[in-house]
Amino acid sequence: MSDFKIRVLNLQVSIFTPEVLFNKNGILALMIGKYPDVFNGDTISVPIPDDAPEGIPRIILNSKDATIKCEIARSHFNMFCGPGDDLYIDTQIEGFLDFCHKVVETYATYTKATIGRLGIIINKYIDQANPQDTLAGRFCREKWLKEVFTNLSEFEIHSLKKIKLDEFMVNSWVRCKSGKLENKKKDTMLEIIHIIQDINTLAEELKIKKFTLKDVRKFISIVSSEHVSIIKKYFLEE
Predict the structure, then answer these.
(1) What pTM was computed for the model?
(2) What pairs with residue 177 in β-bridges?
């Protein structure tokens, strides 16, 4: 078993809404009114022409401590959880995902949204000196380390699988790369292995699928376990 310690830096939960009754003022009042203790930071809601691209966020809500953000566009709804002044959110994930479902339910019910696609993106990291060499050494044969991957300044691997998780057919992306992370409290830069996991239902099914709120909860529950088992195979198993 490897001694890599994997931390979760931030995560994003998204639903894609090909059909939605979008009333910006009504949505804004609903969200701030129902979740005043969370969306208590800066709010952005600027006039946008009706013919502007549907992917442009019409509303952005933030928590005062900068740990929660919600972006609302006609075509999609994003919830973000970040560490604020800390370097990880490991202990907050379960509570955040539960809160995400509540907010999605509030939004989808009010707007009568059709949910055609689901996705979760999780950013993780491993505090690791010389991350480029560590990554290359873990995933490459000795021959290539000696003949090809020498004097590395950066290294990255990227994979995509199409797999079925319960009844959900998904894209499962994993990207691992060397990088740096600012530690604001100590005013230092950490060398890290940056891990990005993106699990999402298929784009080509956006206008075919009609996920229920029960489906959304199930997808969140499945992915919250699956992302852990996936990354164990990359870094915690020999």
Answers:
(1) 0.94
(2) 156, 194
